[in-house]
Design a protein that fits this description.
heterodimer, A: about 450 residues, alpha/beta, Ubiquitin-like (UB roll), globular, B: about 170 residues, alpha+beta, 7 helices, elongated
Amino acid sequence: MPTLVSHPDEVKVLSKRFGLGATNIDRYVELDGYKATQQAIEQGPEWIINTMKASGLRGRGGAGFPTGMKWSFVPKVSEKPKYVLINGDESEPGTCKDHLIFLNDPHAIIEGAMIAGLAIGAKTGFIYLRGEYRYLLNIMEKAVADAYAKGFLGKNIFGHEGVDFDIITQTGAGAYEVGEESALMESLEGKRGVPRIRPPFPAVVGLYGGPTVINNAETIANVPHILLMGGEAYAKLGTERNGGTRLFGISGHVERPGVYELPMGYSLRKAIYDVAGGIRGGKQLKAVVPGGSSCPVLRADEIDVGLDFDQLAKAGTMLGSGGIVVLDETVSIVEFALRTIRFYQHESCGWCIPCREGTDWIKKTLTRFHAGGGNKKDIDNIQYIAENMLGRTFCPLGDAAAMPILGFIKKFRPEFEEYLAGARVANPLIQIQPVGEHELAGAH
Amino acid sequence: MSAIANTIFSPELAARFDKLVTIYPLKRSALVPMLLYAQDEVGYVSDAVVAEIAQRLDLLELDVRNVLSYYSMLRTKPAGKYNVQVCTNISCMLRGGFELLDHCKHTLGIGHKETTEDGLFSLEEVECIGACCWAPAAQVNYDFHDELTPAKMDAVLDTYRAREKK
């Protein structure tokens, strides 16, 4: 079972029910559960959307789009049914926050989905979990069944005539790409998870062709708390244009890895050295990947930055999914870059050529480079390939693969050059494959 | 009574599938979960599984295979009874994921996507499984095992071996 951690600097909004037995519906109701939904039914869609806009909540999946604004884009009148889709396909390396929400507070996700449904006029919500999260799907299914049994879901919820909401839980079967919103809809429609071109955006033409709001599980779990505490109060917890708190998963070479709920804008340095207890074994910090594997790396001298979308963007990287991966001095960036691109090459769905070919060529080149078969052109070549992937694909997977690679080369170019000159990883983790003529043929 | 005569699935699973195809606005939506649940029971997605699921969803077998080939958890060949999936992605890599994988290769005597002779275990190096803060992590079938060391991994494997002896 995942260990729950705690630190005095945490501000627990979303995680306040963690570890309190809130998977039990009665316990959840005791802990102010389902109050927000009833309030939302009484106050109506306009109030919900205004509260969400005032909260400054931005999408926790990675893109950071303002949630209230996203909901307001859904047309009021639609011939086709509207849908709410909760993205629990958490797959970004370094990210395990939704895991804890499903495990500890499944009803918050149900409530958030219901409130989103009330806001946009949808009567059906889907909760999609990655296939590996089977035990969490079981928890979610039980929570949904309990909510139906209490009359919180289904027809005339909480006794309100004509207010209906249904939830369907669903599992994937192993695919990073399906975490991308349009590929997620494809998967839910029983197809290969390849992205759709936009426009039209899902708010207009989404699932089954109907207007659809797609929110990350953490985003949606915040919603009931925001309605209860008020949008402004939530916004004040964070920084300008970055309302509230967020779950940060700190992993890698720290003393106390774990998922911590910190206010937006909290110092990255403090998150690593205070909250997570500093670098394991008294070693030196080398680098940080601040928001999941697709975010460009920061060097040890660049961590005096606040953890919000805008400050990290200014620092040339991203807040992404809030997965902070900490690397100590022993890590070879060449090897870390290779492991990163291996992932994206494996997960590229192959739909867009720049991503399919780009990830494959960078992986091939880095594999040979790592094995000692690098040549002078490789570093520039990798950069050239990555630059040509950026912005040239249907979905952000191409960017997600290119950006970290460009970051590694930009920030640690001397290390690549030393490697080329003969420096090697003392204890390679990734098995070095013998370099033959065939592999070298791909060198230019 | 299953909606399909001569179903290859257990009565429980057949009944579950009968219901699953009715809950979505389009019944094809049941395809991905059906493939996974069928694999859980049969051990892999066999030709017979493909045929029956296609029939249940009014799809061509080709449509089913097209989707089947996309998802990494779905397999078309049998695996061991307990599929050991070791994550070596970045967070696990930093805390010993590769050592854990090597240890499993060594103790089980098999490589990536191979199965032990007794059919009990198979081994897979997998991408991020969403347990980064509790790294290194592995899954055995759907069970998560966190904060592993080679010694803890041995103990984990022993619990599955013990389950077989009962």
